[in-house]
Amino acid sequence: MKTSVVWKEDVHFTANTGSGHTLEIDGNQTAGARPMELLLAGLGGCTSYDVVNILKKSRQDVVSCVAHIDADRADSVPAVFTEIRVHFVVTGHRIKESVVERAVKLSAEEYCSASLMLEKGGVKIVHSFEVVEAE
């Protein structure tokens, strides 16, 4: 896996991923996301991928899955994440809460490389979920 990051100006960078995608990164948030926001987005994408795949393999009729992520950072430099909270809102038809609970747990404890890497680095990650019946 490879990525290159090119400095544009001031605190603005462009990342080019090995899969051919481009992301704008900007410490001032004027031209792109802040680097630490991208870490949270990566975590959210990784764990959401797992949860949706597990739910689909479990034959759950999922129509939407949203991961709301918020985090606390240390007050001093380096301002690392100290706690991250991931809350899933899973919407579908007759979704079983026990299956969602299992999917979230499997992602957190076995599958999501981003979660596991951050936790090994000392970040506390709390997962929660709710199930909403689709109309």
Automatic annotation (TrEMBL):
<dbReference type="Pfam" id="PF02566">
    <property type="entry name" value="OsmC"/>
</dbReference>
<dbReference type="InterPro" id="IPR036102">
    <property type="entry name" value="OsmC/Ohrsf"/>
</dbReference>
<protein>
    <recommendedName>
        <fullName>OsmC-like protein</fullName>
    </recommendedName>
</protein>
<dbReference type="InterPro" id="IPR015946">
    <property type="entry name" value="KH_dom-like_a/b"/>
</dbReference>
<dbReference type="InterPro" id="IPR003718">
    <property type="entry name" value="OsmC/Ohr_fam"/>
</dbReference>
